[in-house]
Write a structure and sequence with these properties.
Length: 238
């Protein structure tokens, strides 16, 4: 995003509408810190500038990835649809993505107000694969990695900053606790806020991952967001 200096009058109305604090007033004109800007387009979409001074420039690669993970209207190049994740975990009742014996896990890095850098994304992804996890192939983050086997982000993307990135994976149940203990160890090295999403098959009316998460040092907050039906037949689990 850029500001047309011929139109800007430096009123500052736009400042609180930037979710990452990239806009300020310098020399009586609006100023965008391009390092902080995640290309979410909020300043333009909010339509608060009385002079209509915001201009969406053509984004070059790799800066364009900021928009992919920050602007909900921009589709991912490898999924073809907008959004940070794959088909959500809460559709497991009809997709059957996570059968018995495995745990689906997602790490949501960044939020409005802070965003996330690629160093944090890489740290999570490499920790996952080094501890038995398998990264989701159809996730929008796939194109960021040199390889799903290593979880390393391609060098050309390492300096980019985004609003939020979701790293999705699946891990065998017996490897879930060791993985989460390692995630707990690296938590201080993550430069942004992050949450952990977990899904598994209930056993005897209980959620088996609750006790596992507690053992690994996390406080689970059960969330019943399963979208029953969705107009499709239920998945068959073994």
């Amino acid at each position: 995003m850029v500001i047309d200096m011929q139109k800007c009058v430096g009123c500052g109305i736009c400042i609180p509408y930037c979710p990452v604090g990239a806009i300020s007033i310098q020399e009586k004109k609006g100023y965008i810190d391009m390092d902080k800007c995640v290309e979410c387009g909020s300043c333009l979409k909010q339509n608060v500038c009385p002079q209509h001074a915001f201009v969406q420039q053509t984004l070059a690669w790799p800066r364009y990835i900021r928009a992919i993970f920050s602007n909900v209207a921009v589709p991912s190049p490898n999924t073809g649809v907008p959004g940070r994740g794959t088909e959500e975990m809460k559709t497991n009742d009809v997709t059957g993505r996570f059968p018995s014996g495995v745990v689906g896990v997602a790490f949501e890095l960044g939020r409005p107000g802070c965003g996330t850098d690629m160093k944090s994304v890489q740290l999570i992804a490499t920790t996952v694969v080094q501890n038995g996890g398998r990264l989701e192939r159809d996730n929008p983050t796939t194109f960021l990695f040199e390889s799903l086997v290593t979880g390393k982000v391609k060098p050309e993307y390492m300096d980019e900053h985004c609003m939020s990135v979701i790293v999705e994976a699946v891990v065998d149940t017996d490897k879930f606790i060791p993985l989460m203990k390692e995630i707990k160890k690296i938590e201080p090295q993550i430069s942004t806020v992050f949450s952990v999403d977990v899904i598994t098959i209930m056993e005897n009316g209980k959620i088996p991952t609750d006790a596992m998460l507690k053992e690994a040092g996390f406080t689970p907050r059960p969330n019943g967001k399963t979208c029953l039906g969705l107009g499709r037949p239920l998945a068959k689990f073994n």
